[in-house]
Amino acid sequence: MPRLTIEDLQKIKEKHKSDFTLREGGYRAKVTVHMGTCGIAAGARAVMTALMDEISKANVTDVIVTTSGCAGLCAREPLATVEIMNRPPVKYCDLSDEKIKEIFKEHILGGNPVEKYALVVGSETTY
Amino acid sequence: MEKFRANLMLCAGTGCVASGTKKVKDALIEEIKKRGLEEELKVVLTGCNGYCAEGPVMSVYPDEIFYQRLTVEEIPKLVEEHFLKGRPYQKLMFTEPEKKTAIPLMKEIPFFKHQVLRVLRNKGLIDPEKIEEYISRDGYQAEARALTQMTSEDIIKVVKDSGLRGRGGAGFPTGLKWEFASKVKSEVKFMLCNGDEGDPGAFMDRSVMEADPHSVIEGMVIGAKAIGAHKGYIYVRAEYPLAVKRLQLAIDQATEAGLLGKNILDTGFDFELEIYQGAGAFVCGEETALMRSLEGKRGMPRPRPPFPAHKGLWDKPSVLNNVETLAQISPIIINGSDWYRSLGTEKSTGTKVFALTGAINNVGLVEVPMGIPLKTIIYDIGGGPKKGKKIKGVQLGGPSGGCIPERLFDLPVTYEDIVATGAIVGSGGMVVMDDNTCMVGMAKFFLEFTADESCGKCTPCRVGTKILLDMLIDITEGKGKEGDIETLEDLGRDIIAASLCGLGQTAPNPILTTIRYFREEFESHIRDHWCKAGVCRALTTFWIDEKMCKGCGACLRGCPSKAIVGEKKKPHKIIQELCVRCRSCYEACKFKSIKIMPAKYEGEPSELVGAAEAVKEEA
Amino acid sequence: MAEAAKILVVDDEPVVIKSAERVLRAEGYDVEGALGGREAILKIEQNSYDLVFTDLKMPEVDGITLIRWIKKSNPSIGIVIITGYPSQDTIKEALELGIIDYVPKPFTPAVLVDVTKRAVEWTAGRKPEEKKITEEFPPAMAAELDRVINDYKIKPGCLIPVLQRAQEIVGYLPPIVQKRISKGLNIPQAEVHSVVSFYSFFTMKPRGDHNIRVCLGTACYVKGIETVLCKIRDTLKIDIGDTTENRRFSLEGVRCLGACGLAPVMVIDQDTYGAMTPKKALGIISRYDPAIAEAVLQETVEEEIVEKEG
To answer: Fewest CB atoms within 10 Å of the CB: B202, B236, B346, C279?
Structure first.
């Protein structure tokens, strides 16, 4: 990355927003696997691998998978957040590779959240 | 930027416009005006939502409610219900086509409901290894403002006015610390970050460094500008490899982008940052000891004054802030001190992150406004005790803190209120204990810790903690004497008065608070040789109440020393000579037929059982 | 070593093997060549060698894989790497696997002879009592240590980082390592030792192949790490701070691993395991050592018998 100016900060922010906002013709769904020390110890890597496998098997290109830090609820790790265009994000807990495969088919491809594994829907209050 | 209570994102894609977005928009604006809400609500036209079949559609943020098939006729009702009465207008709300979703909302789950995220604002939302994601969440905006539009005095004033206090333990006002260092004249100064997080039971700093490393870096650059430092170190525990890796990556990215290093953002301001890995010594959490350790020496504290603001690292003026403190700086610069004070109490402003662990259902990292009662954190957010257990108390502040009993849980969590109980807020480790925890054992646990971690420089701490520990070991082994409790208290107070640094000055806290609130447990250990939690092996006898035993064999199978005998469906018996008092039978019994009795207990215990039950009921 | 040392040279370029053969045979060594990792494995299976010289970048089975395999199946063979790409990372990885030295390509006969001589001496010295803690360390380690010392020398307060890297390279900090650092950094040996003994991260005893770290933090205490620790101690027959006789495991107690959400926690090498029970902990440890797996199995069988009888 070249050296930034203050205007660049704003530009990066806007570009990033437009690139990664879920929309028609762009990404349709976003999956965030929470990978802090706790998550990794609880098996987040296996969940991530299983998900990537499913995505490549299904040959879909409109789903972004990203990692993020600790989600805070260590007792229920591994956690992942699934966001489908126009719907509030759903957090899943106590995941395993089998569960994420089911979530991939039902929720990410089918659009129906898998209630039995879901913890909560919506975003947290910041500020 | 103006702040609106809610943003109404009305879809203006081709599909929705065809279904009547324009009319709906006019009706909305008119209705909002009529109700006098134009300063609170903002209507935004967005691009296609992709949900054209049900148009016109609109999402309301931050509520995250999605409305569909809007009509001009329904608008007044919608505005009234949602924005005046505050309940989403069910009729037009989006529901799953097939079935109604039963997944609860954030505000329906107490774990999330009571939290407000400032430090953890990017928790789970950004990829910590990509600087663009941090920037997209207003990252480095505060740094840009601090370096271009603010003087050192401006920055210090905002931080001082915000009332932010050091989150590492002592709670010293951050702005004041910066002011002291800024007033000292010196060519070389250091801005340091304490990521040593030595308190067992606290892990918020690890989480922040792992999940949002740039927020720490940005806070440090702003602090460096405030005090006039051009060099900094982040001191991180060697036990946190992932945090080290992500911080290093973040430093490299920020340096490459010109947000760190030489001539930051072309403002002429230089600040270079390095990571320094600690080597495992609790005392290095103390600021003078940490600076010694940074110099490559044994991390031993030295008397203050001189304070680090005058003579710190390599005898140069230095400021040391904790990770959580630094992560709060950029939102304070952006939003101002009044915003920061809008949460918390007069003297304990803003939010605090707590690591909630131990005998509780929802173990995790939580951020709450200061002043919230302990009860809310432990019972609502933490989800209360495990099934069939009872919470006894909570340990706050690690080896420097104390145990607060359940009966004081109405207490608001502020620096002052917690100190009044004899504990400290500390770095925010909250370890919840239930009736499986022996409080004498707990005090012993912490003394083992401090006696081992005492650096040995001053006698009261080195020798005093050892004596305290030996006495506690005696008590847990049944060798306690009358008068021990008073001796512990006296000696504890002497150590506090005479020790050199924070480690010794707080080391007796765990003992003093447990004696203060759980004196009867010490007494029953000393007088009755009875550890009622069944933890101290020398002071426990496990005994099966034959009236309650169903002879299921669960205890027998789990016993590692094969000390339990009995035929199926007939009451079992423990052969005391073989029993190693490991508790496994006690945990295994589903009928509560295994009782915890005093040491060397034999024979028909009906009276004692009765008495024990009564004691339990009372508790 | 009375007989001539037997050396296997592994490289995908025949010319390298040829030239090594020519140089080393002239010195009286018994030299053979293999044109890749696979061929090398087959040869080692059939013959016994004292030393293996190997290239790192080879098609199919590469050098690192070969080294791993040798270390597992024939740990007494000394390994020297020949590489045209001495990047810090690969050298570091190879060092961690326990190679003796490396020869950068292209090499002169003198360098090759010199390295071979040292490597043969080193291997010979180690062979009779392999388990014994030697007071020496391989030349490659020494070179790496010196490189670290030189890199950090100019930085103020560099002693702790140097000790950390040194412990990564050698595995522990015996007096000989401390001495070298003291000399290199021009810090009195007493001061080096005082720092080593102050911080719990540093150890002066060699560690086992796998380092088990058990968290002794508050949350783990409340959640019963004590019983887990007891079980590990009993099974491995070592206390905290010790290493098993077969050098397979060392056991360490740490203050807090900062993963309290998963309490009780244990870390083996780099992997964190949460929500431990005595049984689960043993199950995990047995993955690192088949002998323990058998012991655990035995115990389970006994339990089942008891259950049936009951």
So the answer is: B346
* pLDDT tops 50 at residue B612: yes
Please check whether residue B283 is in contact with residue B235, taking contact to mean a CB–CB distance below 8 angstroms.
no
C262/A40 touch (CB, cutoff 8 Å), yes or no: no
* β-sheet bridge partners, residue B234: B193, B275
Pick A4's closest partner by Cβ from B66, B116, B258. Answer: B258
Q: What is the pLDDT of residue B164?
A: 96
The answer, yes or no, to whether residue B603 has pLDDT greater than 70, is: no
Q: B102 CA to chain A: closest CA distance, Å? A: 7
Rounded to an integer, the average pLDDT of B230-248 is 93
Average pLDDT over residues A80-100: 91
Mutual angle of helices B509-527 and B484-498, in 10-degree steps: 170
Q: How many CB atoms are closer than 10 A to CB B459?
A: 13
Given a cut of 60, whether residue B293 has pLDDT beyond it is yes
For A43, the closest chain C residue by CA position comes to: C273
Residue C152 and residue C53 in one domain: no
Domain hosting C151: range is: 139-198
Q: Do residues C108 and C146 both lie within one domain? A: no
Which residues of chain A are within 8 Å of residue C271 when distances are taken between CB atoms? 41
Beta-carbon separation of A112 and B98 below 8 A? yes
Q: How many Å from the N-terminal Cα to the C-terminal Cα in chain C?
A: 61
Bigger pLDDT: B341 or C205? B341
- Judged by a CB distance cut-off of 8 A, whether residue B483 touches chain A is no
CA C144 to chain centre: 15
Q: Flag whether pLDDT at A4 surpasses 90.
A: no
CB contact (8 A) between residue B104 and residue A121: yes
Chain B, 238 to 277: residues with Cβ < 8 Å from chain A are 240, 242, 253, 256-259, 265-266
Contact flag C261-B365 (C-beta cutoff 8 Å):
yes
The residue of chain A nearest to residue B96, with distances taken between CA atoms, is: A112
- pTM score above 0.90: no
pLDDT at B552 over 60: yes
Is B106's CB within 8 Å of A113's CB? no
Residue C133 forms part of a structural domain: no
> Which pLDDT value is given to residue B1?
40
Q: State the Rg of chain B over Cα.
A: 29
Q: Determine the topology of domain B351-434 in CATH.
A: Ubiquitin-like (UB roll) (3.10.20)
CATH number of B6-109, picked from 3.20.20.105, 3.20.20.70, 1.10.260.40, 3.40.30.10:
3.40.30.10
Q: Does A31 touch chain C (CB under 8 A)?
A: no
C40 and C79 inside one domain: yes
pLDDT of residue B457: 87
Q: Please tell me the CATH superfamily of domain B131-339, with its number.
A: NADH-ubiquinone oxidoreductase 51kDa subunit (3.40.50.11540)
Sketch out chain A's domains with CATH numbers.
6-121 (3.40.30.10)
Region B540-618: CATH code:
3.30.70.20
User: What are the pLDDT digits (tens) for B78-102?
Assistant: 888 888 887 788 888 766 544 445 6
Q: What ranges in B55-173 are assigned the alpha helix state H? A: 75-78, 110-113, 131-136, 141-148, 152-162
